[in-house]
Hints:
The complex is a heterodimer. Chain A is mainly alpha-helical. Chain A folds into two domains: 1-40 and 293-427, no CATH class; 130-288, Cytochrome Bc1 Complex, Chain D, domain 2 (Orthogonal Bundle), CATH 1.10.760. Helix content of chain A is 37%, strand content 1%. Chain A has helices spanning 6-17, 23-26, 59-71, 92-101, 108-117, 135-143, 163-173, 187-196, 222-231, 238-241, 244-252, 254-257, 270-282, 306-314, 334-337, 352-356, 379-391, 411-422; strands at 359-360, 366-367. A two-stranded antiparallel ribbon of chain A has the order 1-2. Chain A starts with 5 loop residues before the first helix and ends in a 17-residue tail after the last helix. By secondary structure, chain B is mainly alpha-helical. Chain B folds into two domains: 39-134, no CATH class; 136-207. In chain B, helix 3 runs antiparallel to helix 4 (57-67), helix 5 packs parallel to helix 7 and helix 8 crosses helix 9. Classes of the chains: A mainly alpha, B mainly alpha. The A-B interface holds A 1-5, 8, 12, 325-327, 329, 346, 352-354, 356-358, 360, 364, 366-368, 370-371, 423-427, 429-439 and B 37-39, 41-42, 45-46, 50, 52-57, 78, 80-85, 96-97, 135-138, 167-174, 177-178, 180-181, 195, 198-201, 203-204, 206.
Amino acid sequence: MQGVTRSRRVGALALLLAVSLPPACGGEPRPVPAKAAEVIAPAPDPEPVAAALEPAADPALLARASARFTALECNRCHEIESIAAPTPEFDCVGCHRKILAGDFEASPQELAGWQSRIHSLVDVPRLVPGPRFRRAWLQGFLADTHDLRPNLEAGMPRFALAPDDVATLAAWLSPAAETAAPALGDATRGRAVIEAKGCGTCHRMRGVAPLPATTLPIAIAPAALARGQRLAPDLAHARERLRPAALLQWLESPEQLQPGTAMPTIPLDETERRDVAAYLLQAPLEAVAVAAVPERLPLLQREVRYEEVDAKIFHKTCRHCHSDPELVIGDGGPGYSGGFGFPKRGLDLNSYEGILSGSLDDQGQRRSLFSATPQGVPRIVAHLLARHAEQAGRPLPGVRGMPLALPALPLEDIQLLDTWIAQGRKRNAQPGDDAEGAP
Amino acid sequence: MQRRVIGLLALVVTVAAAPVASACLRKPPPQPKLAKQVDHTQRDVLAAEKALARGDNAKAGQLARGAIPAIAQLPPTDAAELATRAQRTLAIATVRSAGDVHAFELDGADAAHTKAANVAWAGLVLSYQAALKADNVMVKLQLAEALAADTYQRTRARDLLRDLSARDLMPSARGYAMLAQLEGDAALRDAALGRCRDLGGDSTCKA
């Protein structure tokens, strides 16, 4: 683009990416009316999932991994070993971090404004090939992502990865053959070690008695602790996720397996490590009640105009990924131009006209955002409600929840949008509506 | 030689006599300033669109031409998306002003011919962009507006608008208002006016 300076491009992108979520997205979730929990999640298998050791990954898959990581734009969020960072326009996390650190080229007022609103896409796991993860788990996770880190606001999106890509990414992340683990220790003692070492300061473990947040046995800087808390996975996933031998290595020296990890090295002797591993991999997990999917609220009785919906929803959240590239700097976001493996949808939620212009379907044809689903819900509303279902652990087949991987919008905001649509999508009179030349 | 020695002595005395404090407090020599260049193209294109929206076609044209100097070129020499957007803004300003807003001047032509040439240019620009951006509903609407200004193209304009309406893809109340004006069928005209009022209210929707 002629004459557009790099800083301007980046600035505009930063503005777009400065995800300013509604209050309920960023802080404590608003209470939402919901049916009582009805469904009981099946307890994960208390035994390690696969007794057989995984072989080395297929070299053919490894050979294509770098190209696929780049094509799928995993590096927009993840720092990936041996994969170049994207250009600043596409570097979501890098840009957020620069803004929060005050290193971004912008006026102090702009920086302060962005800093007050950015609280997602800052801490993201760094991807390095290693021995830790079960390849089978990685494949399952990539094909059907779910919430893994309960304290992290933005989760892994539900992608639409082809089976080949799932196998390739999993192979790259866990390329080596699995080695046999030594005998595990005593799970009861392991629980005691976990409590004594303060693991509950950062971690949760669904299905067992809450882990107490006892004092850590090491000094850790507040910022590092906060980062660790955000990135700490739910330990209930460990038995499906981790290879036992690598888990023991990880407990001994996390930094050795993943340089820069948020997991600190907690002093544990070999017996303690085996005991902790036994607890993580073998402790019985009780069935946990799955949260009910909140119900769609009835339409409001008062009049709703576009300006209110835009201020509360479109302008705060949606436009960061769904903007017309004619006007914004960059490509308009993955929700317009495609990206992360998603096709182009041509969806502009940054203007009234754009919203009324609909989006492209799988055949490249435009369709209205307001057409009803078989359940009679406007399509755009269905996507917002689907995010609630995803958060409750029950993703809807064929309907991707929005905002992608971010906390669901409060039901009251969805109700506002729903009402606006039902009332005919009115907006305030515009200057020039009755001007000469207007029809 | 004597003069050189005297000159050197004078210099030494001058330097030695200079108060230390004044040397320390002296302002540093001026450094060349680094000018920060800010591109206002985006801001200007937006301003042009706002001027167009409030009915100030002349201002819209002026701003669009100022933002993209080679704006009359077809295809635009600046292929950036922003340039094509500015070009459409100018084209619509030209159509709405019946050619009073110019994208270019014609040497030796009288005012009527210049106006007609500019309106024709606007139609070409919008047809060209509509072909390039087949999935862009706003461009379709703008093309329909240009076509509607041409007596011989009104049917085509109506068909474009009917299609958008039937698929619930009309991007503005103005589109329904245009459709209402182009519809021969009373029931369809009323329906278009009804949708126009749903979206924008009475001020936009004139029968």
